[in-house]
């Protein structure tokens, strides 16, 4: 249950896990922080897997051979959108699993580009982040320049 302070700051739990509260003198990516992010990633992965299972069940239950071509096309479009969403989620699950492995290898929380700390708050917002905010911003600027 969020505290009044968390409510007033608008801090919400991610994947059912409350935001990490750093302790005085605590070093970056000590065991409690790793455990915290592992909980977030495990819960997130479980939610995504449940959604995949629901989609499969929904598609099996709703699959019908409509005689009307418009009805059939509408159903195919709906299924197509669901499958694209599930494909993105499947890729996200792989990224979550890669991040969980980084935690196991003591390589989590540091920028892949410059090596500095990514930061607890950024990781809370995007637990699979592998670039610090400065490197990510630079990467996006370069991407936009290449695109057009």
What does this 3D model show about the protein?
- The protein is mainly α and 148 residues long.
- It has two domains: 29-108, Up-down Bundle (Four Helix Bundle (Hemerythrin (Met), subunit A)); 110-148, no CATH class.
- The protein contains five helices and no strands.
- It has helices spanning 4-9, 31-62, 69-104, 120-125, 133-147.
- Helix 2 (31-62) packs antiparallel against helix 3.
- The chain is elongated and about 70 Å long.
- The N and C termini lie far apart (47 Å).
- The model is unreliable at 4-11 (pLDDT under 50).
Order of helices and strands: HHHHH
Uncertain stretches: 4-11
What fraction strand? Answer: under 5%
Helix content: 55-70%
Number of strands: 0
Largest sheet: none
**3D shape:** elongated
Indicate the radius of gyration in whole angstroms: 20 Å
Question: How many separate helices?
Answer: 5
- CATH T-level fold name of the largest domain: Four Helix Bundle (Hemerythrin (Met), subunit A)
CATH architecture of the largest domain: Up-down Bundle
Mean pLDDT: 87
Number of domains: 2
Distance between the termini: 47 Å
The CATH homologous superfamily of the largest domain is called DksA, coiled-coil domain
Structural class per helix/strand content?
Answer: mainly alpha
* CATH class wording of the largest domain: Mainly Alpha
